Amino acid sequence: MSFESFLTTDDFSGYEDPEKYKRDWLPKVEKYRQDLEDGLLSEYTAELPASIDVLASKGFNPLKYLYDAKLLTEEEFKITDTPASELVEKLAKGELTAVQTLKAFAHRAIISHQFTNCALQLFVTEGLERAQYLDDYYKEHGKPIGPLHGIPISLKEQMDYKDKITHGSYVSKIINIPGKHGVTTQILENLGAVFYVRTNQPQTLMHLDSNNNFIGLSKNPFHLGLSSGGSSSGEGSIVGFGGSAIGVGSDIGGSIRAPAAYSGCHGLRPTTRRISTNGGISGGAGQESVPAVAGPMGRSIEDLELWMKTYINDGKPWELDQWCIPLAWRDVPKPKPTDLTIAVMYDDGLVKTTPPIARGLKETVAKLEAAGVKVITFEPIKTKLAYDTVHKMYACDGNYKQRELLSASGEPLAKLTKWSLSYGDGAKSYSVAENRKLNIIRDSLRQEYTDYLIDNKVDFILSPTYNNVAPKPEQVYNWSYTSLFNILDLPTLTFQTGLFQDPTKDVWDESHASYTYRNELEKLECSTYDPEAFAGAPIGFQLSGRRYFDEEVIAAGKTIVEILDVNLFNLF
Amino acid sequence: MSFESFLTTDDFSGYEDPEKYKRDWLPKVEKYRQDLEDGLLSEYTAELPASIDVLASKGFNPLKYLYDAKLLTEEEFKITDTPASELVEKLAKGELTAVQTLKAFAHRAIISHQFTNCALQLFVTEGLERAQYLDDYYKEHGKPIGPLHGIPISLKEQMDYKDKITHGSYVSKIINIPGKHGVTTQILENLGAVFYVRTNQPQTLMHLDSNNNFIGLSKNPFHLGLSSGGSSSGEGSIVGFGGSAIGVGSDIGGSIRAPAAYSGCHGLRPTTRRISTNGGISGGAGQESVPAVAGPMGRSIEDLELWMKTYINDGKPWELDQWCIPLAWRDVPKPKPTDLTIAVMYDDGLVKTTPPIARGLKETVAKLEAAGVKVITFEPIKTKLAYDTVHKMYACDGNYKQRELLSASGEPLAKLTKWSLSYGDGAKSYSVAENRKLNIIRDSLRQEYTDYLIDNKVDFILSPTYNNVAPKPEQVYNWSYTSLFNILDLPTLTFQTGLFQDPTKDVWDESHASYTYRNELEKLECSTYDPEAFAGAPIGFQLSGRRYFDEEVIAAGKTIVEILDVNLFNLF
What predicted TM-score, i.e. pTM, was given to this entire model? Predict the structure, then answer.
């Protein structure tokens, strides 16, 4: 896709086949939807204050309503608003049972789904059986089964789940029922996690939003008129809403960070090869120019660390997936603010940030500086080249695999599916020689950023996660802020700032009227902003560190949210 | 290449241009050869007992002659027959100077070159200046400059060297003079190494032999009628001959292990991403389906370990090359024989081993078992698929890059250049989608081998490095035994067994006459074997461990050569 010709470069003939879809596939989809409906156990559902459409049009905040209307019991609130890093201790000491814990989260998860449409599969009854098993184990052995004993974890649907349909939002895969868990799911289960929900994601897994032919869009837990992001869309909704203790997403262009930023939680895109993506559906199988990564989403940085540390050090993913490196998770102490040097990218040179992002970044930097952090300005390094290259990498098989997966069912294409199929040169198939040239560009970019960080003694790059706060449904076009760190493969934390869009403050300044757009994408993105429509949307940024130094990013993230005084367990 | 149609699938038109080559390039090559000639300082040269051609025809052993004819002084023998791991201590204590050390190795290196044609560039005078600088540093500071202070290290020419022609055996690159060292060269220099020789390699870097248009073939230091292997050809010769303390090679299909096995030294092909290949000439730039790796060659396993440990832990390659993982080198104790479980691959199912290899493996296994090692038979897992896939990966850009590098000068193509250009589907350019399918096959193979090792509690796979001992010049066709471990990316040590081909023992057994070849490649390889022609060729095997567990491979290698009672410093 060039900035000037998007939505025009791919040829979509041969993808859709309405007749075949309706005849052969839609009945399966309808059955699937019914199963989801059946998973909404009546003892956990809430009565909604109005129809979702009405609530969405009013910018309703379901998370605030959860507290205001006291939709959970006091105990349920207490459990679901305890960080996972504390829950594991309570479970290990026997102060909480796994059943008690799951019931609380399941209640909140089901309400989350009622409001945000976050789940593709709900199987609380199975989860309760597993929780009971863990409680029995605990009673028998006097100790937890593993370091995540009894922690309710939500899973992006894309990951293989033993004996359950796993479709990755491709209708053609609704007939796919894996005989075993994907590696990451298996490791988490080995560590003691409890599963009860698999979450929504967009068709092709290549939107920063969530539309698909299964259940459609997921909604923002802070504002039902906005998107929860994508492609780990349901994870954004459910984790932001507090319906799971930790969520698992995956990210090839922003798919953990965008939903985390939009939906009011934190999320880590780890460096590649630390977390397994083995076993699951993907349109990018065998693509290693810019590999997808899996990673955690949560409401505290400590929870992300708990997940990473136990997953790596106890889960030993390299024993189950040859792709993973036996690089142990190191305990890195939380740095003092004065130990940190952070380079801030206020603008990536491609797409201008909207008022809440510009204000949020300014306020965040002011707080960091006041706390003693050394902040310098980061002048973007070849972001246009990075953008063009990574977008070509996504599509350089000429969308061969996507076409195969989509055309098998003839399902209708979502708006943003067409958008992402137009990336790079769309349907143009690259030769291997051309792909190798892209890899050489990528490696030179990676080296340039590595050199920048080391030569300038800069610890981290702080940047917007997206040029805007959570977008309106199906109005997120620009990946430049997130995909930059995919092509660079830098571990990147999206953290919440505790700031929210404020229509009274977040209006374009006077200069905007005479601003000359640098490209059509920028114009399109800026045109979607309207102060009133985004009231209360969370503001989250990215912190990127050196490749494979995920530990330092997490440690600094703790310092930063402490400086910003962010507490996502106590918002309303 | 299929076994049935090799040497026929590529189109070689457009590569060669004799007129252009002779007019524009040959004069440069001749100047280069003269520079090499000028580097043979007269105070270090020896008088040869006959012409090289005559010696080669007699199967002359120059290493034995070195001792028999006392071509070095006693002190020079003592220094050059001390392991690098001990030299560093002597240098650090001031018991040896860097100048003294280099002079001894330079003398042996130059004699090595006279016999084996191992060097592309010799710059002993520069090396002596560097050594003097190190001695001055030591005097001034009372300590070594780094953990490899004063160690003479030979370098495969392919790696960028500051201000020196770096051509990778492509004539078109004879005009390439890098402004800085490649990363690995730079790290070794930072650690205190002394450079004085850059060594030979084949055209395209894709032969397990050494022919090129610069200086032609390198010879085996144990038998001048045989090949020293390739593509780290000159490293095989010089390290086997003792002309450098440690050599640096690189390996994408066997290029460290073949020359180590043939030329009578040890060599490690590390797991990818631990050692940098950044900065150098390669026809595979941007190719990451089966990446090349750099690694050490030496005369003791301890020396390989010294190189790996200091390179990684002190050199921190991840700070200079984004490709490298910050995975520290772990100190792994030498295992007891009884702690080891080794699966032996006697035959890979593709190409039958010649009598010395079959006998050598049998004798080696007997000694290991006698020492208490648990030995089981390894039944090859999908070796044909691995062979086909990795060979397609080498050429799947349709040899685009090779064609570009070769046709720029129009240089004549060597026999084995045509052979390797015929790999996979030769000149057929693959699409990205096809490349991705190869990657998926590769990953499933890697997983299968990983699962095999873990599920069966097998520590290592022991296998031939090649179906034969060192081949006759330009008669090495089969890569199956080595390239298997490239596609699997398993760290693989080639170690010497202390055994040598023996014409009285190593004849085909009776059954061979009625043996039905499984494919044309096997027939071709077996046809080159003739007991008398290989007298005294070293026998070296491979030990492969789990991906990224290079430390365990090295540790077990120490145990094994101890069991086999191998001492390469004391052979004649």
Answer: 0.97
